Each structure stands twice: as structure tokens, then as C-alpha cells.
Amino acid sequence: MNNQWNKFIYKVGAPVYDRFFNSGVFLNARKKVFGDLVLRDGQHVLIVGVGTGADLCFFTEQDIHITAIDISPSMISQAKDKVNDDMHVDFYEMNAQQLQFPEQTFDLVVANLILSVVPDAHQCMNEIIRVTKDRGSILVFDKFTPRDKKLSLGKKIVRPLISLLGTDIGRHFENIIEPYEKQVNILDDRPVLFNGMYRKISMQKLS
């Protein structure tokens, strides 16, 4: 996977993305992910890889400022249609591996379905932590290989083919977060979809 290829895939897939990832079981999973989220008025939230804006509906009741980035202008165009007049959202076309924000900018960083699609998940995680304020929150919803388990033979065979669709089914969150274990505290790590293939992971950045 690389960013240019991903931009092409997202441009092609943007018109039908909502049908698969923003409805049905995925919508129910997102409700679980955001179900216990508590925000205070005035907080600044970053959505990394906003896609077509599936997560925006969970922020309509709070008086907060949202910054939403994505590498795909086609995805951003659709996400803008999901913003109502009461929401404060700024959109930027941006690489999730090179966030153009100062350190400790955001109270909450939402990174849903992004660590499995960026070329370098370690660099993306590093950037997410960097721009999160001390004691701020990081929320992840994504697919990972279950902890302490190896990728099955079948998945090993199809992994290169699925990567052509812009996603990696063989990443371990434990490997991604390992270099940053002293920077964050994992508060919650639970399965939410497809027998634990998709997990909700919430973290707090340590000061």
C-alpha cells in the first residue's frame, strides 16, 4: 500500500463507501465505540481519516470544534455533506502520517479505520500521540489480528490481494503501540465486531 494508490482506491470507492462501512453492522459497531464517550464544551477534536464522515453524527450534540483530515478529496467532499449548521468542522486534505499540527493540540483524537490502511501505522500512531494533549484521549476502532495469535494461513494468502484494496488484515495493535507504551495508558480494549477482528481501543496520553 502507498498513499497515491490509496487515494485512487478511495476515489473509486467513495460513492459506495457508506453502503458498506457506514451502515448495518458497521454502524452498530460505531455506536458501541462512541456510546460512552464524554466530551466537554469547547474541546478540540481531531478525526484522522474522516472518510465520508461516518463519525460526525456522534458529535452533533456537543459544542466542540472538530478538525477532520483525510488524504482523499473525494471522501472529504462526501463528509462535508454530513455537517449540519450547528457543527464547527474544519476539513483538510492531509496525510495521517504527517499531521500538520503543533504538539498537544487536541483534547481527543479519533482514529477509526486508519491504522490498518496507512502505509506506516507506526508513524501514524506517533503523529496521533504527538498532537494529543497531555491527559487527552485517543479513540481507535479498527481491525487487528487478535493478540497473541498468528495470522491464519488463509489470511496470509489473501493478505497481499486485500492490500491492493487499500487495507491490511494482518496488523497487530500490540506491535503498533509497543514503542509508545510509556506515553499512553490503555483504558479500554474490547471486541466490537466479527468475533474480535474489529476492536475498540481507548487510551489516555500520559503527561
UniProtKB/TrEMBL annotation:
A Pfam family it matches: Methyltransf_11
Keywords: Methyltransferase, Transferase
Transmembrane segments: none
Domain (Methyltransferase type): residue spans on this chain: 48-139
Gene Ontology biological process terms, A to Z: methylation
Cited InterPro entries: Methyltransf_11, SAM-dependent_MTases_sf
SUPFAM superfamilies attached to this UniProt entry: S-adenosyl-L-methionine-dependent methyltransferases
GO MF assignments: S-adenosylmethionine-dependent methyltransferase activity
Entry-linked PANTHER family: TRANS-ACONITATE 2-METHYLTRANSFERASE-RELATED
Protein name per Swiss-Prot or TrEMBL: Phosphatidylethanolamine N-methyltransferase
Organism lineage string: Bacteria, Bacillati, Bacillota, Bacilli, Bacillales
